[in-house]
Recover the amino acids of this structure.
DNA sequence: GTCTATACCTTGATAGAC
DNA sequence: GTCTATCAAGGTATAGAC
């Protein structure tokens, strides 16, 4: 109902999505404040005035990038949670999805999400924060189950912060095409952070 | 030789240090780009022109905040390393110092250090990066010893990134005066990340 | 060492032609 | 839907009096 769906079957990016992608890329590289609307427009072969036909303000652009990023990673991790019955496999799958969202094709949006939230007005911050809290709840649930089974530290909030900190920091150092691919990275971090769950995985990696 | 050291024995902040502290505070709260030199001057009861007597440029201010922060945390962690002979105690002490620098009185400078490096010109980035690498080497050394003893994963670089990620992320969620003080936080994270070393500590915390 | 005043530039956003 | 032209505001930095 959204579009007549013409002849082209390729899910090409709409103009709006193109703009979001270009903006996210620049925001990640230079930061939100250092990136001018003129730069964004230029990257798309437009002039700055045209941007404001698609978006109400520069902040609007930032909010949409963040919301889209959060919705995408939430959807992906939720899927992983629902697809694995066993707890160790489930947490490992969730970590994989988190890292894939962070370091894969969505790198730009996710980095912006992590490091540009101070540029949001208080009103916009509240909106984005609500989505972030919903995402973190996903982790709290599964980690709570692990804690109930005595597999991890009982302070679930602390475990979640430690885990997400380790995962998110990878955006600062991970280089695609390096010696570690994303799946391997997830597995290594899993073993490091949840050694007592790792032993019950099918193929458990040695530590030393 | 630097100053005649008059009668006052109080190590009062020099004007330059006052400016650095005020700027760091604003940079942390609002970000470097969103903070104008006028604001910084106003916070000190000056006008913007006066700032440029003390600093060559706004970026100069940022660089000095970062360098000072890095030198301080390096000195502190180095001290911890040298004061503990046993490896588990040494790593725990280093984690304590890192968290204390990050979350204590130096919170402003350290947050700026973590989250504003993109605002540096390439030349300035290189200078700061050199100091950061020296700091990280401190960790690599001690972690390598732990790896040699088979106490941790052999991929020392990965362990270091995971550890520093978990520690640094605390700047995003830790609230002073909350249920965890800094020493306790360090100990809990140590147990979580280095369970095989934790068992050889005097008073080891239970996990579940 | 700090102030006032200001030069000069870039910014986000708007209006209206096409 | 994009362009040109333009505005008002706010940015960094400088000059020179005090």
């Amino acid at each position: 109902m959204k579009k007549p769906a013409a002849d082209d079957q390729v899910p090409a990016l709409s103009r709006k999505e193109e703009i979001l992608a270009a903006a996210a890329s620049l925001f990640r590289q230079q930061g939100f404040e250092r990136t001018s609307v003129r730069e964004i427009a230029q990257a798309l072969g437009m002039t700055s005035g045209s941007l404001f036909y698609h978006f109400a303000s520069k902040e609007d652009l930032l909010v949409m990038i963040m919301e889209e990023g959060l919705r995408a990673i939430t959807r992906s991790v939720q899927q992983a949670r629902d697809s694995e019955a066993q707890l160790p496999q489930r947490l490992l799958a969730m970590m994989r999805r988190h890292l894939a969202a962070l370091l894969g094709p969505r790198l730009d949006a996710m980095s912006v999400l992590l490091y540009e939230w101070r540029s949001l007005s208080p009103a916009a911050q509240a909106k984005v924060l609500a989505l972030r809290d919903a995402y973190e709840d996903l982790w709290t649930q599964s980690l709570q189950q692990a804690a109930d089974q005595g597999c991890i530290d009982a302070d679930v909030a602390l475990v979640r912060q430690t885990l997400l900190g380790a995962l998110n920091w990878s955006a600062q150092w991970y280089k695609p095409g390096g010696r570690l691919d994303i799946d391997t990275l997830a597995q290594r971090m899993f073993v490091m952070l949840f050694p007592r769950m790792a032993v019950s995985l099918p193929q458990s990696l040695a530590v030393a």
Notes: The radius of gyration of chain A is 19 Å.
